[in-house]
Design a protein that fits this description.
The chain has 2 domains: about 200 residues, 2-Layer Sandwich (PmbA/TldD fold); about 210 residues, no CATH class. Strand 6 and strand 7 form a beta hairpin. Strands 4-3-2-1-5-6-7 form a 7-stranded antiparallel sheet, with helices on one face. Strands 12-11-10-13-20-19 form a 6-stranded mixed sheet, covered by helices on one side. A 5-stranded mixed beta barrel has the order 9-14-15-17-21. The protein is an alpha+beta fold.
């Protein structure tokens, strides 16, 4: 980043400013079947400027942000800052102070070998067993080393590194005259070879089963088990409603020290922000505003303990030392996964879409693949939808003792919701 950028900001009429500079160095590989189609090395830089203006004698604080090209010269940078200052005068947020400098726990330098990480992904996918009925159609590998720097008018000047990896995989399953395709994307810090192999093998099994799926009948209300990444949306409901933004805007009515779910008889959620989660792509010592991250209890046995969030909304709530977490961990429940998998239930492993509204808790999802368990009988189903609301489901929520990690979130391996409305496809 060129030094004249901060010189221009300091000399401007801005009452505050921040600069975010992110350099990405990455490798990309594109395979058709297991044949390399193309690859490239990528080096990009993204510079974001934000300026702040006090308005009406400090009653309001306006702000505006934009990206600056790394190739921009002094005059282009000055023109952008002047434009942002005019835009900031049109925004009237209640006044708040920008974050001051603060110490953060030391972090080991993560100068990871991204080429080696990409190689781990490629070797893992090439060594997976395939058959004439199920195989990998194509995959793309992305491995990035991200170097970040953040500066502010309050004196913050921090640098840190992290690693982000992604694998996009398309799996095919086929029988006589019929073929289907399943898409997956996996994100992490580096390659979890064992976890990736298990996930792709499971996806191949889903593809094989989907070839023989029946249309979902009308089931009325039935318990639903979530055992794939769709369950993340359930726990994001709890996360979002403890955010300072939703609390300040009056969307969340959850109060510190109170039960977030009244009359809960099932497992009660314990939710924590954690600074380090093994192999997460969000293991950074600071958030996007330069605030130090740390471990923070958010919910404890269904009781609200701490809000969290951006400097702006945290300030409005009078929160000290708040931050935007990168990683979250949800504690497991009282029963094992095997104990929860009992009785009659529909385990949905594929949705075309699954949503849980943070505003009102409403749930909706279109079923692509599910397994109806009824005693000793298991029926493979497709089509139809699930619906209801977390306001009710959370009262009888069941979470397994075992947990599973999805990049920056550690959640119970399976989640059971009671009396979900199931619309059939017949």
């Amino acid at each position: 980043m060129k030094d004249f950028i901060t010189d221009i900001l300091k000399a401007s009429s801005a009452d505050g400013w921040t600069v975010s500079d992110q350099e990405n160095e990455g490798w990309e590989f594109y395979f058709i079947r297991h044949r390399l189609d193309q690859n490239r090395v990528r080096h990009t830089e993204h510079i974001t400027l934000t300026v702040y203006k006090r308005l009406e004698d400090g009653k309001y604080l306006g702000s505006a942000s934009a990206k600056l090209s790394p190739a921009a010269d002094r005059e282009e940078a000055r023109a952008l800052v002047d434009s942002l200052l005019k835009e900031a005068e049109l925004v009237k947020n209640p006044y708040y102070e920008l974050a001051p400098p603060a110490d953060a726990a030391a972090e080991a330098d993560t100068e990871a070998d991204v080429m080696e990480i990409a190689g781990d992904f490629i070797r893992t996918l090439k060594n997976l067993p395939e058959t004439g009925g199920e195989d990998i159609n194509s995959y793309e590998i992305f491995a990035d080393r991200i170097r970040s720097r953040f500066l502010s008018s309050t004196g913050i000047d921090i640098r840190y590194n992290r690693t982000l990896s992604k694998a996009e995989v398309v799996v095919n399953a086929r029988n006589e005259g019929h073929e289907i395709e399943l898409y997956r994307m996996y994100s992490s810090g580096s390659c979890d070879s064992r976890g990736l192999a298990e996930e792709i093998s499971r996806t191949m099994q889903y593809g094989r089963d989907k070839l023989h799926a029946q249309k979902t009948p009308y089931l009325g209300c039935c318990d639903v088990i979530l055992s794939t990444d769709a369950a993340l949306e359930v726990y994001r409901y709890f996360i979002d409603r403890m955010s300072a933004g939703l609390k300040y805007q009056g969307i969340s009515d959850w109060e510190i020290g109170g039960e977030v779910i009244k009359g809960a008889e099932g497992d009660k959620v314990t939710l924590e922000a954690v600074r380090i989660l093994p192999n997460s792509s969000e293991n950074a010592p600071y958030d996007s505003e330069g605030a130090p991250r740390r471990d923070l209890m958010i919910l404890k046995d269904g009781i609200a303990v701490n809000y969290f969030g951006s400097r702006q909304f945290s300030s409005y709530l009078g929160l000290e030392d708040s931050f935007i977490p990168g990683n979250f961990a949800v504690s497991g429940g009282k029963k094992t996964a095997a104990e929860i998998r009992s009785g009659r239930y529909l385990e949905v492993v594929e949705f075309s879409d699954f949503q849980v509204s943070a505003f009102n808790g409403d749930i909706f999802g279109e079923i692509r693949l599910g397994y109806l368990h009824d005693g000793d009988r298991v029926t493979v189903l497709e089509g139809g939808s699930v619906s209801g609301t977390m306001r009710e489901f959370a009262k009888n929520l069941l979470m397994s003792k075992e947990r599973k990690q999805y990049d920056n979130m550690l959640i119970p391996e399976i989640t059971r919701l009671a009396d979900v409305s199931i619309t059939g496809a017949e």
